[in-house]
Amino acid sequence: xxxxxxxxxxxxxxxxAAVMEVLTFxxxxxxxxxxPPTAALMARFADCAAVGLATTARAQxxxxxxxxxxxxxxxxxxxxxxxxxxxxxxxxxxAPHLGSIGAAIAAGLSVRPSRAVPLLTAAPAxxxxxxxxxxxxxxxxxxxxxxxxxxxxxxxxxxxxxxxxLAHLAAQTDLPGALIxxxxxxxxxxxxxxxxxxxxxxxxxIDSMDPASEAAAGALIWRNRARMGLVAGSQGVxxxxxxxxxxxxxxxxxxxxxxAGR
Length: 262
Description:
By secondary structure, the chain is α/β, with parallel strands linked by helices. It has helices at residues 13-25, 39-43, 62-77, 101-111, 165-169, 182-186, 189-198, 211-223, 236-247; strands at 6-10, 30-33, 50-54, 83-87, 117-120, 128-131, 134-139, 142-145, 177-180, 203-206, 230-233.
């Protein structure tokens, strides 16, 4: 096994596969499992730079998550990835009783203690945007704030009545949060991060709207990975990291994907 850049725990299968898609098209070999892999199985994928594990957490309650997620986090943490990512849906599907992101973050912190947990939900390539803490999502009718989105505002299981993600998350966890907004990303995001830590923040919601803010978010996560090695968010985390790695020469531009053939 090569030195793992990251490992991710997906809250469902399709979301977990989306992370593998981002990494693979960026030229980073990755593999996704549906149960913790054995050492012998891992040996088959020694060239991989990232490893994922899919769960059904998005459809489970907090008691289930408290019982089942820590061993899964531990299995991935044992691989010693530089970043351990809890992958959520880019529309923040969650509620206190179902798919609680707050409960999942608590489970992750029980395995990998971190000074704080960066939370990056937006993925501009997928028309998911976060501006000043509020999440927006695209649809065929246009881009809507999440609490006015024609689908997510009326979701049958986890309707979004609040687009401010830290406000939505406050019903799921007592961990204090802080925002690293677009202004901070464009000026001195590290200073804003340090200020938030000094104020006791444990979850850091990060805006992302365009290539510049996405790259700044990726740089912030990567540069602080030694003390904040647990990250939560959508595949926007990987989009941001890849953009930062490519801009800094840490990852070469990948060749165009070849056809799968007939």
